[in-house]
Protein backbone atom coordinates (compact mmCIF):
# COMPACT_ATOMS: atom_id res chain seq x y z
CA UNK A 1 0.00 0.00 0.00
CA UNK A 2 2.87 2.39 0.72
CA UNK A 3 4.24 1.54 -2.76
CA UNK A 4 1.01 2.78 -4.36
CA UNK A 5 1.30 6.08 -2.47
CA UNK A 6 4.90 6.43 -3.70
CA UNK A 7 3.75 5.55 -7.25
CA UNK A 8 1.19 8.31 -7.01
CA UNK A 9 3.79 10.74 -5.66
CA UNK A 10 6.24 9.89 -8.44
CA UNK A 11 3.52 10.47 -11.03
CA UNK A 12 2.54 13.95 -9.86
CA UNK A 13 3.44 17.01 -11.94
CA UNK A 14 6.36 19.08 -10.68
CA UNK A 15 5.34 22.72 -11.04
CA UNK A 16 7.90 25.35 -10.06
CA UNK A 17 7.51 27.32 -6.84
CA UNK A 18 6.51 30.37 -8.86
CA UNK A 19 3.82 28.35 -10.64
CA UNK A 20 2.60 26.95 -7.34
CA UNK A 21 2.14 30.44 -5.90
CA UNK A 22 0.54 31.74 -9.09
CA UNK A 23 -1.85 28.78 -9.28
CA UNK A 24 -3.07 28.84 -5.70
CA UNK A 25 -3.95 32.14 -4.04
CA UNK A 26 -4.65 30.28 -0.80
CA UNK A 27 -1.21 28.68 -0.72
CA UNK A 28 -0.11 30.62 2.37
CA UNK A 29 -3.26 29.63 4.24
CA UNK A 30 -2.50 25.98 3.60
CA UNK A 31 1.23 25.93 4.16
CA UNK A 32 2.10 28.78 6.55
CA UNK A 33 0.69 28.18 10.01
CA UNK A 34 0.74 30.19 13.22
CA UNK A 35 1.39 27.91 16.16
CA UNK A 36 0.14 29.52 19.37
CA UNK A 37 1.69 28.95 22.76
CA UNK A 38 -1.21 29.88 24.99
CA UNK A 39 -4.82 30.69 24.34
CA UNK A 40 -5.30 34.41 24.70
CA UNK A 41 -4.76 37.24 22.21
CA UNK A 42 -1.32 37.91 23.57
CA UNK A 43 -0.16 34.30 23.06
CA UNK A 44 3.38 33.91 21.83
CA UNK A 45 3.46 32.37 18.38
CA UNK A 46 5.77 30.55 16.02
CA UNK A 47 5.08 30.75 12.30
CA UNK A 48 5.91 27.60 10.34
CA UNK A 49 6.01 28.59 6.68
CA UNK A 50 6.42 25.65 4.31
CA UNK A 51 4.93 27.55 1.32
CA UNK A 52 8.30 27.91 -0.44
CA UNK A 53 8.60 24.13 -0.72
CA UNK A 54 7.24 22.17 -3.67
CA UNK A 55 4.40 20.59 -1.67
CA UNK A 56 0.98 21.17 -3.22
CA UNK A 57 -2.50 19.78 -2.60
CA UNK A 58 -1.74 16.67 -4.68
CA UNK A 59 1.44 15.94 -2.72
CA UNK A 60 -0.21 16.54 0.61
CA UNK A 61 -3.02 14.11 -0.26
CA UNK A 62 -0.61 11.45 -1.51
CA UNK A 63 1.68 11.86 1.50
CA UNK A 64 -1.35 11.55 3.77
CA UNK A 65 -2.06 8.28 1.98
CA UNK A 66 1.53 7.21 2.61
CA UNK A 67 1.19 8.12 6.30
CA UNK A 68 -1.91 5.98 6.49
CA UNK A 69 -0.20 3.10 4.73
CA UNK A 70 2.69 3.35 7.22
CA UNK A 71 0.21 3.42 10.14
CA UNK A 72 1.39 6.83 11.27
CA UNK A 73 -1.57 7.19 13.65
CA UNK A 74 -0.83 3.80 15.22
CA UNK A 75 2.91 4.47 15.57
CA UNK A 76 2.21 7.85 17.13
CA UNK A 77 -0.26 6.30 19.57
CA UNK A 78 2.37 3.72 20.49
CA UNK A 79 4.94 6.50 21.06
CA UNK A 80 2.69 8.48 23.40
CA UNK A 81 1.34 5.33 24.99
CA UNK A 82 4.78 4.28 26.21
CA UNK A 83 4.74 1.13 24.08
CA UNK A 84 7.90 -0.44 22.71
CA UNK A 85 8.73 1.71 19.69
CA UNK A 86 12.43 0.81 19.75
CA UNK A 87 12.14 -2.90 18.95
CA UNK A 88 15.86 -3.61 18.52
CA UNK A 89 16.48 -2.57 22.13
CA UNK A 90 13.03 -3.55 23.41
CA UNK A 91 12.33 -0.06 24.76
CA UNK A 92 9.72 2.67 24.76
CA UNK A 93 10.80 6.23 23.87
CA UNK A 94 9.28 8.38 26.59
CA UNK A 95 10.81 11.81 26.15
CA UNK A 96 7.34 13.37 25.92
CA UNK A 97 6.49 12.01 29.39
CA UNK A 98 9.25 14.31 30.68
CA UNK A 99 7.05 17.17 29.45
CA UNK A 100 3.94 15.72 31.08
CA UNK A 101 2.47 14.12 27.94
CA UNK A 102 2.38 10.33 27.75
CA UNK A 103 1.57 7.22 29.73
CA UNK A 104 0.28 8.12 33.21
CA UNK A 105 2.88 6.11 35.18
CA UNK A 106 5.74 7.52 33.11
CA UNK A 107 4.44 11.07 33.45
CA UNK A 108 4.16 10.57 37.22
CA UNK A 109 7.71 9.19 37.47
CA UNK A 110 9.11 12.05 35.39
CA UNK A 111 7.26 14.57 37.57
CA UNK A 112 8.71 12.96 40.68
CA UNK A 113 12.24 13.14 39.23
CA UNK A 114 11.68 16.76 38.21
CA UNK A 115 10.40 17.58 41.66
CA UNK A 116 13.64 16.30 43.17
CA UNK A 117 15.73 18.06 40.52
CA UNK A 118 13.94 21.36 41.20
CA UNK A 119 14.57 20.97 44.92
CA UNK A 120 18.29 20.33 44.35
CA UNK A 121 18.64 23.20 41.86
CA UNK A 122 16.92 25.59 44.23
CA UNK A 123 18.93 24.35 47.22
CA UNK A 124 22.19 24.90 45.33
CA UNK A 125 21.02 28.37 44.30
CA UNK A 126 20.37 29.06 47.98
CA UNK A 127 23.90 27.96 48.90
CA UNK A 128 23.49 24.33 50.01
CA UNK A 129 26.76 23.41 48.28
CA UNK A 130 28.53 26.59 49.36
CA UNK A 131 29.12 29.37 46.89
CA UNK A 132 28.64 28.03 43.33
CA UNK A 133 29.65 30.45 40.61
CA UNK A 134 30.67 27.96 37.93
CA UNK A 135 29.27 24.67 36.73
CA UNK A 136 31.32 22.39 34.49
CA UNK A 137 28.85 20.11 32.74
CA UNK A 138 30.63 17.00 31.44
CA UNK A 139 28.85 14.79 28.91
CA UNK A 140 28.92 13.97 25.20
CA UNK A 141 26.42 13.51 22.34
CA UNK A 142 22.90 13.81 23.69
CA UNK A 143 24.26 14.45 27.16
CA UNK A 144 25.99 17.63 25.97
CA UNK A 145 24.58 19.00 22.71
CA UNK A 146 21.14 19.89 24.11
CA UNK A 147 22.43 21.47 27.33
CA UNK A 148 25.05 23.48 25.38
CA UNK A 149 22.44 24.73 22.92
CA UNK A 150 19.82 25.54 25.54
CA UNK A 151 22.21 27.42 27.83
CA UNK A 152 23.61 29.36 24.87
CA UNK A 153 20.13 30.17 23.59
CA UNK A 154 18.43 31.11 26.83
CA UNK A 155 20.99 32.25 29.37
CA UNK A 156 22.70 35.10 27.58
CA UNK A 157 21.14 37.84 29.71
CA UNK A 158 22.99 36.84 32.82
CA UNK A 159 22.97 33.23 33.91
CA UNK A 160 22.46 32.41 37.59
CA UNK A 161 25.54 30.17 37.30
CA UNK A 162 28.29 30.32 34.70
CA UNK A 163 27.98 27.05 32.74
CA UNK A 164 30.79 25.40 30.75
CA UNK A 165 29.84 22.34 28.72
CA UNK A 166 32.76 19.99 28.03
CA UNK A 167 32.34 17.00 25.74
CA UNK A 168 35.48 16.17 23.80
CA UNK A 169 38.09 13.75 25.14
CA UNK A 170 40.74 16.11 23.73
CA UNK A 171 42.21 17.58 26.93
CA UNK A 172 42.22 21.03 25.29
CA UNK A 173 38.44 21.15 25.86
CA UNK A 174 38.70 20.43 29.59
CA UNK A 175 41.63 22.82 30.03
CA UNK A 176 39.64 25.58 28.38
CA UNK A 177 36.88 25.11 30.97
CA UNK A 178 39.37 25.06 33.85
CA UNK A 179 40.77 28.41 32.64
CA UNK A 180 37.34 29.99 32.97
CA UNK A 181 36.54 28.62 36.44
CA UNK A 182 37.63 29.19 40.01
CA UNK A 183 37.98 25.73 41.63
CA UNK A 184 36.77 27.05 44.99
CA UNK A 185 33.37 27.97 43.53
CA UNK A 186 33.01 25.32 40.82
CA UNK A 187 30.73 22.32 40.86
CA UNK A 188 30.64 19.47 38.35
CA UNK A 189 27.70 17.85 36.61
CA UNK A 190 28.62 14.45 35.20
CA UNK A 191 25.99 13.68 32.57
CA UNK A 192 25.81 10.24 31.05
CA UNK A 193 22.80 8.03 30.51
CA UNK A 194 24.98 4.93 30.80
CA UNK A 195 27.68 6.35 33.08
CA UNK A 196 30.23 4.31 31.13
CA UNK A 197 31.08 6.60 28.18
CA UNK A 198 34.84 6.78 27.99
CA UNK A 199 35.08 10.47 27.08
CA UNK A 200 32.78 11.55 29.90
CA UNK A 201 34.32 9.33 32.56
CA UNK A 202 37.88 10.37 31.60
CA UNK A 203 36.95 14.05 31.60
CA UNK A 204 35.17 13.63 34.93
CA UNK A 205 38.29 12.01 36.47
CA UNK A 206 40.40 14.93 35.22
CA UNK A 207 37.97 17.45 36.67
CA UNK A 208 38.05 15.65 40.04
CA UNK A 209 41.85 15.75 39.89
CA UNK A 210 41.80 19.45 39.05
CA UNK A 211 39.57 20.21 42.04
CA UNK A 212 41.78 18.11 44.33
CA UNK A 213 45.00 19.71 43.07
CA UNK A 214 43.44 23.09 43.69
CA UNK A 215 42.67 22.49 47.32
CA UNK A 216 39.12 21.08 47.26
CA UNK A 217 39.23 18.43 49.98
CA UNK A 218 36.16 16.44 48.94
CA UNK A 219 35.94 16.83 45.15
CA UNK A 220 33.26 14.11 44.79
CA UNK A 221 31.16 16.23 47.12
CA UNK A 222 31.11 18.86 44.35
CA UNK A 223 29.55 16.48 41.83
CA UNK A 224 25.98 16.04 40.71
CA UNK A 225 25.39 12.97 38.54
CA UNK A 226 22.72 13.02 35.80
CA UNK A 227 22.08 9.48 34.67
CA UNK A 228 19.78 6.55 33.98
CA UNK A 229 22.33 4.29 35.73
CA UNK A 230 22.39 5.61 39.33
CA UNK A 231 24.14 2.50 40.67
CA UNK A 232 27.11 3.16 38.35
CA UNK A 233 27.29 6.79 39.50
CA UNK A 234 27.36 5.57 43.11
CA UNK A 235 30.14 3.06 42.32
CA UNK A 236 32.09 5.92 40.76
CA UNK A 237 31.84 7.92 43.98
CA UNK A 238 28.80 10.19 43.83
CA UNK A 239 26.63 10.27 46.92
CA UNK A 240 23.09 9.02 46.33
CA UNK A 241 21.65 12.36 47.44
CA UNK A 242 23.32 14.08 44.50
CA UNK A 243 22.28 11.65 41.79
CA UNK A 244 19.48 12.87 39.56
CA UNK A 245 18.09 9.86 37.74
CA UNK A 246 16.00 9.58 34.62
CA UNK A 247 14.26 6.70 33.00
CA UNK A 248 15.99 4.19 30.70
CA UNK A 249 13.17 4.82 28.20
CA UNK A 250 14.44 8.37 27.53
CA UNK A 251 16.89 8.19 24.63
CA UNK A 252 20.22 10.03 24.87
CA UNK A 253 19.49 12.49 22.04
CA UNK A 254 15.99 13.06 23.44
CA UNK A 255 17.13 13.62 27.03
CA UNK A 256 17.44 17.39 27.37
CA UNK A 257 14.10 17.44 29.20
CA UNK A 258 15.23 15.02 31.89
CA UNK A 259 17.91 15.63 34.53
CA UNK A 260 20.33 16.06 31.61
CA UNK A 261 18.78 19.56 31.51
CA UNK A 262 20.21 20.27 34.98
CA UNK A 263 22.71 22.93 33.75
CA UNK A 264 19.86 24.68 31.95
CA UNK A 265 17.84 24.85 35.17
CA UNK A 266 20.97 25.94 37.06
CA UNK A 267 21.59 28.76 34.58
CA UNK A 268 17.98 29.93 34.17
CA UNK A 269 16.28 28.97 37.42
CA UNK A 270 13.52 26.40 37.77
CA UNK A 271 10.55 28.56 36.65
CA UNK A 272 12.15 29.08 33.23
CA UNK A 273 13.01 25.40 32.95
CA UNK A 274 9.38 24.59 33.69
CA UNK A 275 8.32 26.97 30.89
CA UNK A 276 10.72 25.25 28.54
CA UNK A 277 9.00 21.93 29.34
CA UNK A 278 5.57 23.53 28.89
CA UNK A 279 6.51 24.89 25.44
CA UNK A 280 7.53 21.39 24.38
CA UNK A 281 4.32 19.95 25.86
CA UNK A 282 2.24 22.34 23.70
CA UNK A 283 4.00 20.95 20.61
CA UNK A 284 3.51 17.38 21.90
CA UNK A 285 -0.22 17.94 22.20
CA UNK A 286 -0.39 19.45 18.72
CA UNK A 287 1.56 16.51 17.27
CA UNK A 288 -0.51 13.94 19.18
CA UNK A 289 -3.91 15.44 18.39
CA UNK A 290 -3.67 16.89 14.86
CA UNK A 291 -4.42 14.80 11.82
CA UNK A 292 -3.05 15.01 8.30
CA UNK A 293 -0.93 17.77 6.87
CA UNK A 294 -2.20 20.32 9.42
CA UNK A 295 0.15 18.47 11.77
CA UNK A 296 3.27 20.66 11.61
CA UNK A 297 6.02 18.09 12.25
CA UNK A 298 4.28 15.63 9.89
CA UNK A 299 3.96 18.30 7.19
CA UNK A 300 7.67 19.09 7.54
CA UNK A 301 8.41 15.36 7.23
CA UNK A 302 6.35 15.25 4.01
CA UNK A 303 8.62 17.93 2.57
CA UNK A 304 11.72 16.11 3.86
CA UNK A 305 10.58 12.89 2.18
CA UNK A 306 9.73 14.77 -1.01
CA UNK A 307 13.22 16.19 -1.34
CA UNK A 308 15.11 13.10 -0.21
CA UNK A 309 13.16 10.44 -2.05
CA UNK A 310 11.63 12.25 -5.02
CA UNK A 311 14.25 14.89 -5.80
CA UNK A 312 17.40 13.04 -4.74
CA UNK A 313 18.61 15.66 -2.23
CA UNK A 314 21.40 14.19 -0.13
CA UNK A 315 21.58 17.05 2.36
CA UNK A 316 19.34 19.53 4.09
CA UNK A 317 20.60 22.79 5.57
CA UNK A 318 19.49 24.78 8.61
CA UNK A 319 20.46 28.39 9.07
CA UNK A 320 19.61 30.15 12.31
CA UNK A 321 19.45 33.88 11.76
CA UNK A 322 20.07 34.35 15.44
CA UNK A 323 23.33 34.05 17.36
CA UNK A 324 21.46 32.48 20.26
CA UNK A 325 20.59 29.51 18.08
CA UNK A 326 24.05 29.11 16.58
CA UNK A 327 24.41 25.62 18.09
CA UNK A 328 21.08 24.42 16.70
CA UNK A 329 22.56 22.80 13.55
CA UNK A 330 24.98 20.77 15.73
CA UNK A 331 22.11 19.62 17.89
CA UNK A 332 19.96 18.71 14.89
CA UNK A 333 22.80 16.77 13.31
CA UNK A 334 22.75 14.27 16.16
CA UNK A 335 18.97 14.24 16.46
CA UNK A 336 18.35 13.59 12.78
CA UNK A 337 21.38 11.64 11.62
CA UNK A 338 21.80 9.41 14.67
CA UNK A 339 18.06 8.72 14.59
CA UNK A 340 17.40 8.20 10.90
CA UNK A 341 20.78 7.45 9.30
CA UNK A 342 19.84 3.79 8.84
CA UNK A 343 19.94 1.21 6.04
CA UNK A 344 17.43 -1.27 7.42
CA UNK A 345 13.81 -0.93 8.44
CA UNK A 346 12.49 -1.65 11.91
CA UNK A 347 11.89 -5.29 10.86
CA UNK A 348 15.50 -5.69 9.65
CA UNK A 349 14.68 -5.66 5.93
CA UNK A 350 16.56 -3.23 3.65
CA UNK A 351 15.09 0.27 3.33
CA UNK A 352 13.20 1.21 0.16
CA UNK A 353 15.22 4.34 -0.60
CA UNK A 354 17.54 6.93 0.92
CA UNK A 355 17.03 7.65 4.61
CA UNK A 356 18.13 10.74 6.60
CA UNK A 357 19.84 13.34 4.49
CA UNK A 358 23.02 14.92 5.86
CA UNK A 359 21.97 17.79 8.11
CA UNK A 360 24.28 20.75 8.01
CA UNK A 361 24.07 24.49 8.43
CA UNK A 362 25.25 27.50 10.31
CA UNK A 363 24.30 30.96 11.39
CA UNK A 364 23.07 33.85 9.27
CA UNK A 365 24.25 36.20 8.03
CA UNK A 366 27.75 34.69 8.38
CA UNK A 367 26.86 31.69 6.22
CA UNK A 368 25.77 33.99 3.36
CA UNK A 369 29.39 35.01 3.00
CA UNK A 370 30.66 31.46 3.05
CA UNK A 371 28.38 28.73 1.72
CA UNK A 372 25.37 30.39 0.10
CA UNK A 373 27.10 30.56 -3.28
CA UNK A 374 26.52 26.80 -3.55
CA UNK A 375 22.90 27.09 -2.43
CA UNK A 376 22.12 29.64 -5.14
CA UNK A 377 24.22 28.42 -8.05
CA UNK A 378 25.69 25.01 -7.18
CA UNK A 379 24.65 21.75 -8.79
CA UNK A 380 23.20 20.29 -5.57
CA UNK A 381 19.60 20.99 -4.71
CA UNK A 382 19.58 21.72 -0.97
CA UNK A 383 16.31 22.34 0.88
CA UNK A 384 16.97 25.01 3.47
CA UNK A 385 15.30 25.86 6.78
CA UNK A 386 15.62 29.44 7.98
CA UNK A 387 14.99 30.06 11.68
CA UNK A 388 14.66 33.56 13.12
CA UNK A 389 13.06 35.57 15.90
CA UNK A 390 11.02 38.77 15.51
CA UNK A 391 12.30 40.11 18.85
CA UNK A 392 16.02 40.75 18.97
CA UNK A 393 18.22 39.23 21.63
CA UNK A 394 20.25 42.38 22.24
CA UNK A 395 19.87 46.05 23.15
CA UNK A 396 21.71 47.59 20.22
CA UNK A 397 19.90 49.78 17.72
CA UNK A 398 17.17 48.04 15.80
CA UNK A 399 19.16 48.43 12.58
CA UNK A 400 21.05 45.30 13.52
CA UNK A 401 17.92 43.25 13.79
CA UNK A 402 16.15 44.77 10.79
CA UNK A 403 19.17 44.04 8.60
CA UNK A 404 19.43 40.51 10.02
CA UNK A 405 15.78 39.66 9.31
CA UNK A 406 15.79 41.40 5.91
CA UNK A 407 18.70 39.21 4.91
CA UNK A 408 17.01 36.07 6.18
CA UNK A 409 13.82 36.72 4.22
CA UNK A 410 15.79 37.93 1.17
CA UNK A 411 17.62 34.62 0.96
CA UNK A 412 14.40 32.60 0.85
CA UNK A 413 12.97 34.94 -1.78
CA UNK A 414 16.16 34.85 -3.86
CA UNK A 415 16.44 31.05 -3.73
CA UNK A 416 12.89 30.81 -4.99
CA UNK A 417 12.84 33.60 -7.58
CA UNK A 418 16.30 33.22 -9.08
CA UNK A 419 17.39 35.70 -11.74
CA UNK A 420 18.00 35.53 -15.46
CA UNK A 421 21.14 36.91 -16.98
CA UNK A 422 22.71 36.79 -20.41
CA UNK A 423 25.94 35.99 -18.63
CA UNK A 424 25.60 32.37 -17.42
CA UNK A 425 27.96 33.05 -14.49
CA UNK A 426 25.56 35.69 -13.24
CA UNK A 427 22.33 33.71 -13.69
CA UNK A 428 20.47 32.17 -10.76
CA UNK A 429 18.29 29.19 -11.62
CA UNK A 430 15.86 29.83 -8.77
CA UNK A 431 13.06 27.42 -7.85
CA UNK A 432 15.16 26.37 -4.86
CA UNK A 433 13.12 25.44 -1.79
CA UNK A 434 13.20 26.80 1.73
CA UNK A 435 11.04 26.77 4.83
CA UNK A 436 10.96 29.50 7.46
CA UNK A 437 10.34 29.14 11.16
CA UNK A 438 9.74 32.57 12.66
CA UNK A 439 9.49 32.83 16.44
CA UNK A 440 7.92 35.87 18.11
CA UNK A 441 10.84 35.68 20.52
CA UNK A 442 13.45 33.24 21.75
CA UNK A 443 11.98 32.33 25.13
CA UNK A 444 12.09 29.11 27.15
CA UNK A 445 8.61 28.23 25.84
CA UNK A 446 9.23 28.92 22.14
CA UNK A 447 12.60 27.21 22.35
CA UNK A 448 11.01 24.14 23.96
CA UNK A 449 8.37 24.00 21.22
CA UNK A 450 11.01 24.41 18.52
CA UNK A 451 13.07 21.48 19.80
CA UNK A 452 10.01 19.28 20.32
CA UNK A 453 8.91 20.13 16.74
CA UNK A 454 12.21 18.75 15.46
CA UNK A 455 11.98 15.61 17.61
CA UNK A 456 8.53 14.87 16.21
CA UNK A 457 9.58 15.72 12.67
CA UNK A 458 12.39 13.16 13.04
CA UNK A 459 9.96 10.55 14.36
CA UNK A 460 7.45 11.28 11.56
CA UNK A 461 10.19 10.85 8.95
CA UNK A 462 11.15 7.52 10.51
CA UNK A 463 7.54 6.30 10.40
CA UNK A 464 7.19 7.29 6.74
CA UNK A 465 10.38 5.33 5.95
CA UNK A 466 9.51 2.39 8.20
CA UNK A 467 12.68 2.68 10.28
CA UNK A 468 13.42 2.67 14.02
CA UNK A 469 14.72 6.13 14.97
CA UNK A 470 15.56 5.18 18.54
CA UNK A 471 18.58 2.89 18.26
CA UNK A 472 22.12 3.82 17.15
CA UNK A 473 24.15 0.67 16.63
CA UNK A 474 26.19 2.46 13.98
CA UNK A 475 28.25 4.19 16.67
CA UNK A 476 29.38 0.96 18.35
CA UNK A 477 31.97 -0.55 15.99
CA UNK A 478 34.36 2.41 16.16
CA UNK A 479 34.11 2.40 19.96
CA UNK A 480 34.93 -1.33 20.05
CA UNK A 481 37.97 -0.91 17.84
CA UNK A 482 39.19 2.04 19.94
CA UNK A 483 38.99 -0.25 22.97
CA UNK A 484 40.97 -2.96 21.18
CA UNK A 485 43.63 -0.37 20.33
CA UNK A 486 43.79 0.73 23.96
CA UNK A 487 44.12 -2.86 25.10
CA UNK A 488 46.77 -3.76 22.54
CA UNK A 489 47.46 -7.13 20.95
CA UNK A 490 45.11 -6.80 17.95
CA UNK A 491 46.50 -6.60 14.43
CA UNK A 492 44.81 -4.05 12.17
CA UNK A 493 45.07 -3.18 8.49
CA UNK A 494 48.44 -1.83 7.26
CA UNK A 495 47.28 1.79 7.10
CA UNK A 496 45.96 1.77 10.68
CA UNK A 497 49.06 -0.07 11.93
CA UNK A 498 51.31 2.58 10.35
CA UNK A 499 49.31 5.42 11.90
CA UNK A 500 49.44 3.80 15.34
CA UNK A 501 53.16 3.32 15.08
CA UNK A 502 53.74 6.88 13.94
CA UNK A 503 51.73 8.23 16.88
CA UNK A 504 53.57 5.92 19.29
CA UNK A 505 50.36 4.16 20.33
CA UNK A 506 51.07 0.58 19.23
O1 LIG B 1 27.87 7.10 21.05
C1 LIG B 1 26.58 7.59 20.86
C2 LIG B 1 25.89 7.81 22.16
O2 LIG B 1 25.43 6.61 22.69
C3 LIG B 1 24.74 8.80 21.98
O3 LIG B 1 23.59 8.21 21.52
C4 LIG B 1 24.63 9.39 23.33
O4 LIG B 1 23.91 10.58 23.33
C5 LIG B 1 26.08 9.56 23.69
O5 LIG B 1 26.72 8.42 23.13
C6 LIG B 1 26.40 9.67 25.14
O6 LIG B 1 25.97 8.56 25.86
P1 LIG B 1 25.84 8.61 27.43
O7 LIG B 1 24.84 9.65 27.78
O8 LIG B 1 25.44 7.24 27.86
O9 LIG B 1 27.20 8.99 27.98
UniProtKB/TrEMBL annotation:
Q: Which domain of life is it from?
A: Bacteria
Xref: CDD domains: SIS_PGI_1 (cd05015), SIS_PGI_2 (cd05016)
- Which InterPro entries does the record cross-reference, listed alphabetically? G6P_Isomerase (IPR001672), G6P_Isomerase_C (IPR023096), Phosphoglucose_isomerase_CS (IPR018189), SIS_dom_sf (IPR046348), SIS_PGI_1 (IPR035476), SIS_PGI_2 (IPR035482)
Pfam families linked to this entry = PGI (PF00342)
Q: Which residues cross the membrane?
A: none
Q: What is the lineage of its organism?
A: Bacteria, Pseudomonadati, Pseudomonadota, Alphaproteobacteria, Sphingomonadales
Q: What is its EC number?
A: 5.3.1.9
Keywords for this protein: Cytoplasm, Gluconeogenesis, Glycolysis, Isomerase
One GO BP annotation is: glycolytic process
Gene Ontology, cellular component aspect: cytosol
Give the originating organism: Novosphingobium mathurense
Q: What is this protein called?
A: Glucose-6-phosphate isomerase
What reaction does this catalyse?
alpha-D-glucose 6-phosphate = beta-D-fructose 6-phosphate
Family assignment?
Answer: Belongs to the GPI family.
One GO molecular function term of this record is: carbohydrate derivative binding
- Kindly identify the residues recorded as the active site: 338 (proton donor), 369, 479
Q: In which pathway does it act?
A: Carbohydrate biosynthesis; gluconeogenesis; Carbohydrate degradation; glycolysis; D-glyceraldehyde 3-phosphate and glycerone phosphate from D-glucose: step 2/4
PROSITE patterns attached here? P_GLUCOSE_ISOMERASE_1, P_GLUCOSE_ISOMERASE_2, P_GLUCOSE_ISOMERASE_3
What this chain does, per the entry, is described as: Catalyzes the reversible isomerization of glucose-6-phosphate to fructose-6-phosphate.
